Amino acid sequence: MPAQRQVGAGEKSREEAVRAYQAGNKAAFAKVFDAYYPTVAGVLFKMLGNTPDMEDLVQTVFLEIHRCIHRFRWESRFSTWVYRLTINVAQQHLRREKYRRPADTGDREPWLQIVDPKEPEQSVINRETFDKIRQLLDEMPEKRRIVFILSDIQGLKADQIAQVLGIPKKKVYSRLFQARRIFHGMVKNDPYFMNKYLNSGKGESGD
Amino acid sequence: MAEKQKHVQLDEIYEFLWGELPDAGKRFIEEHVHHCNMCKEEMKVAKGIVADLVSMGKTVPVGLDKKSIKASVLSKMGEQEIHRNQWGRGLRLVAVSSIAAAALFVVGIWLIMGPDRHQPVITRQADMEQQNGKIPGNETPMYAGKREESGESHVGQGSREIRDHRHGVGEEISVTGKEKEKRVELGFNTGVVLKPGASMIPLTLEKNRIVLRLERGTGFFKVDPGRYAAFEVSTPGAIISVRGTVFMVSIDSEKGTHVRVSDGKVDVKATRAGANVIAVRAGFEVIVPAFGVVSSSDIRPFNDPKLYAFTRSSVFGERTGKPGIAGNVKQNRQLLKVTAGKNKPGRIKSRRPGTAVHHGGIQTASRQKVRGPVIKLSLQEMRQSLDRARSMARSGENGQAVVLLKKALAAAPSKELEAEAHYLLARNFTVLQNYDGALTEYEAAVDMGRGHLAERALYEAALLSKDHIKDNRLTIKLLARYYKLYPNGVFDEEVTYLLCRMKVEAMEVEAAVESCMNYLDRFPRGYRSTETLYLTATMYRQLPGGFEQASDLYQSYLERKDARKKDEALYWKAGCLLQDGRKVEAIKDLNLYLDKFPNGKRAREVKVLLHKLTG
Known about the structure:
A: mainly alpha; Arc Repressor Mutant, subunit A; B: alpha+beta; Jelly Rolls; Serine Threonine Protein Phosphatase 5, Tetratricopeptide repeat
């Protein structure tokens, strides 16, 4: 079974809230916030890691949405626009702070949690893996990293990524293949992952 | 080239895993990987990567406080709106002043060229009539600005010292920090006193309907009863509707809209969709949080001498200089001073146990009582009130008990009794399912109370947080506070157990292990010790290198008579032994599992595992 891209689930109801908000129903913003908070917080975390500015950055994205929503013309999906804003904010932050994350997630509170609460034990195991993946993502060149996160982690399709980043689809594929090769290479050099994938048999049942 | 055809490209492997390859490509890869060990390994690694990335995609950061981010975004949005409006008004002002300058220029030219002196631009009489509201289309003009000295109008006398400025709908009236307060008259006995820093925009100025928008700062409002079908004051967070009253509205960017009523009654409603309308009576105040809602339980008594002085004054009633108004003054329901030695607090008007008692208040001509400064109850009266509230709560009249307790709180004679009242309020709120209110009251009881009451309040607050509010972090915080304040308290064992339970649920593995071990050390045969043994073993299992400890703890649990999850414990014990490299013992335990629980939940897994282990 190939891996599933989970994009577009519940998009209609979320977009209804956006339309209501755009039409002047200010109370609908709370719904918009709830609908897009996981996307915004998730992408920011994956781009920037465990930064203390995370709350400010999430706020900035939503304030940008509020400020510019009247300019959104429904020529693309709203989520695409949200991704674009989120990535812009993340890139600005990286540029401003010349951000380089230290691998210090161990000292702080756990940020990540598996969505499925039926497997709380699994979350402990996965947290270590996620920390390692985050460290590897930091090593990747920024443009490739963005494409890789949007495609293979967030599950966006190539044409949607092309819209988000405003680049041709061919370029998306090119960056994605390069990113996958880089990431694959880094994983193969990491004994933690090699032990995990080749010895535990997870690779066999990964899908 | 030949090499390329031999092996599968890495890009193709990923496309295969993401289901982006055509069928022919898929078949080729499947067949090739079956035979080629090198590509099989690449496929294994890629599969693992894809699986981990997909599960990472399903995660969200949980260290963030979503609620506070949301509240902060909403409040900043409100600020942005205000700035935007102000910019809009600024541009309008620029446009209006440009037009005015052009008009002045034209008039100047016209005057130089020889105007007709018999046709004045605006006659003084016309000006006066306009200000008296006789010009059609401008029937309820608004005047703002400080009058000269006495505060009386000089319009009728044709004085050139008039400094009133007319304001129309949509024009901002603001008072800068350096100015004194500004008085805005809306008609007889009705008006607003804007305090320094305030800003207000009239939205509707009709004969029987007035809508004002208070953008910031504080305003004291006095509305003549029976004059308007609707009189509304809106703020960024609330709408206040009134019919004949005196009240204050103050906006605090952090706290929200503060409404105090000193005469009559006002209806307050949060601007948020679905918010309820609550009635605030004279002598009470309410704070509507920015973008929040209010309920009747948020209403509290207040004491504001400045507002009472404003209520007693007749700033908008003494306009004797105006034709057609002076005669009406006495016919209207004017606020009169009636008690306590002419404006001075003194004689106590009424005193009943269990109610807030007032003196030095004022009354309207219709004998409606207005609350003045509150005096304290005696200790005996306060105790009687608390007893009455207790008996009310016992008979299920929790709502009435809350009202009585709030009144008693306002006049509580000592901190100890006040803490008791807070505690009782919290219990009543819990029954009424106002959990946030209950938590606030419990916290007040903890802060003010002493000894057993405070200890109990803290414990019950933690239980409330755990069972009803379901806030794991808050519960841990409250339990930890209890643990720190009352190390040998009455609820010590239960709190120690709850603390480890909460940490386990929060998956704070190391902290949970520490808490569990602490419980087991202090209460080795405590009534929660068996359960704690199981929890500790489960947590040790999560720690690197904790399998040995975990298997020992599972064994201790299995030896307990009151252990309920023996099948699970046996299964996990075997698992831990296996991970620890003790294969023989693990097989023994797995066989034991099948003997004891042949139809257990894990029986099938155990069989498979045994088959693998024993070949």
